[in-house]
From TrEMBL, chain A:
GO terms for cellular component: plasma membrane. Belongs to the ABC transporter superfamily. PROSITE patterns: ABC_TRANSPORTER_1, ABC_TRANSPORTER_2. GO terms for molecular function: ATP binding; ATP hydrolysis activity. It is found in: Cell inner membrane. Keywords: ATP-binding, Cell membrane, Membrane, Nucleotide-binding, Transport. It is a peripheral membrane protein. It comes from the Bacteria. Residues 2-255 form the ABC transporter domain. This is ABC transporter ATP-binding protein. The keyword Membrane applies.
From TrEMBL, chain B:
Belongs to the binding-protein-dependent transport system permease family. It comes from the Bacteria. Gene3D superfamilies: MetI-like (1.10.3720.10). This is ABC transporter permease. Keywords: Cell membrane, Membrane, Transmembrane, Transmembrane helix, Transport. It comes from Devosia geojensis.
Length: 269, 282
């Protein structure tokens, strides 16, 4: 199985500061990989670099191959063809990830019709509306007809994140990158969104790159993890190995922190 | 209906009142302007009565010092003011929005260069730039005045567009759209323009008022539309000599000017409330 996303010796810097150093990992098609680390460890930058969308002023070196195509140094108009089709991203904050002035149905319709155009089977009118509703139904939104007509601010956080997921799914990507998709949500909603992602990734046989600082969430969602610390990968391997027998101090401290937090929640000390 | 919902309903009614008042004021001018195309009470350049007659049933706001009917000239003034406003804002919008978007998307140095140029242009008063353009074209005509004002306004529009577009470009939904494969042109058309449009359109309405006032100033200085185009500015200038004997000659064009500008501003406020769905639905 060839790698869908092949990051090799990726270094991201701004000016003299190095934000990600020498990062290498691969995601095969259908595989679920977790990228974990505390905030500021370069997780989100890695996700953006994977689609060639680093903010201006940040320079990427090394190699990022997405679906066999080199991303670093490739002009934007060529990458546009790759984006969405090879990989789509679900962001952390679902409110800002949706255009505030557009009804969400139309926002879902946008990537849906683009993908249909790329496949040479343009969708429009009632067929497009039907596809939007089907997609909203697939992300388990009740009453899709009403929700499609709503503006983002009229929806709850969980509903918005479902819309964001629907927009990513509309691209029918081979790789779904989820950048802290549950961090902005309350605990109950978190679990629902995680189940949803899990189900969708399996059903559609997508690869998943799951970015999070939340160990239990990562452990239940992915097969393999990359632990990032200050832009460097300190540990890589199957979930059971990394979390069961952590080799690096940093992984151990992350685990200990998560454990003591759980203990505190359950009233132990 | 809960108390909160009731307050919101009252608020909404007030918004629509603003829109309504603005629409009526501007609407009066539009109707008059259209009317001048087919009918005028008197020939605007012929003597219609005695000199400096006070208002009467025959001459609603009297006559000027050449005995021409003032109301006829005010009506033509409405048409000219609307042409100037629409024309100048359209030119300013096309040039300004294009430049602003270009700057927002451009590489660092081009953006800096454009921004610096715009800042320098804005440092000059709109009227001064317009006067320079009119002087450079060496014929004072209505179209020269419109083009001149359009160019002068474009710097303000461009700077606003640049700032607004840059702010939108930082939003997550732009990155989200980019990751799903939307091209830059798609980003501009689908996300940037619709999101900056409410603010821009309110600004256009304000620019409209600015353009009308600036044209009146140009005409007052003799750089605007030449006779027989009775711009309100020229009427004011002509009434200056007789302001103590026949004040209505200066007051009437002033009232016309102010009513159109206030109307546009009210319309702008009302429109902003009407287009913004986050306000509307709340």
């Amino acid at each position: 199985m060839s790698a869908l996303l092949d990051v090799h010796r990726l270094t991201i810097r701004t000016g003299t500061t190095t934000l990600v150093r020498d990062l290498s990992f691969q995601t095969a098609s259908g595989e679920r990989v977790g990228l974990i680390g505390e905030s500021g460890s370069g997780k989100s930058l890695t996700a953006l670099a994977a689609t060639g969308l680093l903010p201006a002023g940040l320079v990427a070196e090394g190699s990022v191959e997405l679906a066999g195509q080199q991303v670093i140094g490739t002009p934007d108009n060529q990458l546009d063809q790759l984006r969405g089709t090879a990989a789509a991203i679900v962001f952390q904050e679902p409110l800002t990830a949706l255009d505030p002035l557009k009804r969400v149905g139309r926002q879902v319709a946008e990537p849906l019709s683009r993908r249909a155009r790329r496949d040479g089977r343009p969708l429009s009118g009632t067929a497009l509306d039907g596809a939007v509703l089907a997609l909203l139904d697939e992300v388990a939104l009740s009453d899709p007809t009403r929700i499609a007509r709503a503006y983002p601010h009229e929806l709850s956080g969980g509903q918005r994140q479902r819309i964001a997921i629907a927009m990513a799914l509309a691209c029918r990507p081979d790789l779904l990158i989820a950048d802290e998709p549950t961090t902005a949500l309350d605990v109950t909603t978190q679990a629902e969104i995680l189940n949803l992602l899990d189900r969708l990734v399996r059903e559609r046989n997508m690869a998943l790159l799951f970015i999070s600082h939340d160990l239990p969430v990562v452990a239940n969602t992915v097969e393999r993890v990359v632990v990032l610390r200050k832009g460097e990968a300190v540990e890589t391997g199957p979930v059971a190995t990394v979390f069961g027998a952590p080799q690096h101090d940093y992984t151990r401290s992350l685990l200990a922190a998560a454990r003591s937090f759980d203990d505190a929640l359950e009233g132990r000390s | 209906m809960t108390a909160a919902a009731e307050t919101q309903a009252v608020e909404r009614r007030q918004h629509s009142l603003t829109l309504y008042a603005g629409a009526v004021l501007v609407g009066i001018h539009v109707v008059i302007a259209l009317l001048t195309l087919v009918w005028l009470p008197y020939d605007p350049s012929a003597m219609a009565g005695g000199r400096l007659e006070p208002p009467s049933w025959l001459h609603w706001v009297g006559t000027d010092r050449l005995g021409r009917d003032l109301f006829t000239q005010l009506m033509i003034g409405s048409r000219i003011a609307l042409m100037v406003g629409v024309g100048a804002v359209a030119i300013g919008a096309v040039i300004g929005v294009t430049l602003g978007l270009l700057a927002a998307f451009a590489s660092r140095w081009l953006d800096d260069a454009l921004a610096a140029t715009l800042d320098i242009l804005i440092a000059f008063p709109t009227l001064l730039i317009a006067m320079l353009v009119v002087a450079a074209s060496d014929t004072a005509s209505l179209s020269t005045a419109i083009v001149a004002l359009g160019i002068a306004l474009s710097a303000i529009v461009a700077r606003l567009t640049r700032i607004l577009a840059k702010r939108v470009l930082l939003m997550d939904y732009i990155t989200a759209a980019r990751t799903s494969g939307t091209s830059w042109l798609g980003i501009v058309l689908i996300h940037v323009l619709p999101n900056i449009w409410p603010t821009l359109s309110v600004n256009f309405a304000l620019q409209f008022g600015l353009a009308v006032i600036a044209e009146a100033s140009l005409s007052y200085l003799g750089l605007g539309a030449p006779p027989p185009n009775a711009s309100w500015g020229r009427l004011l200038q002509e009434a200056q000599g007789t302001v103590y004997t026949a004040p209505i000659g200066a007051i009437a064009p002033g009232v016309a000017l102010v009513s159109l500008v206030i109307g546009m501003n009210l319309l702008a406020d009302g429109l902003r409330e009407a287009i913004d769905p986050t306000r509307q639905a709340r």
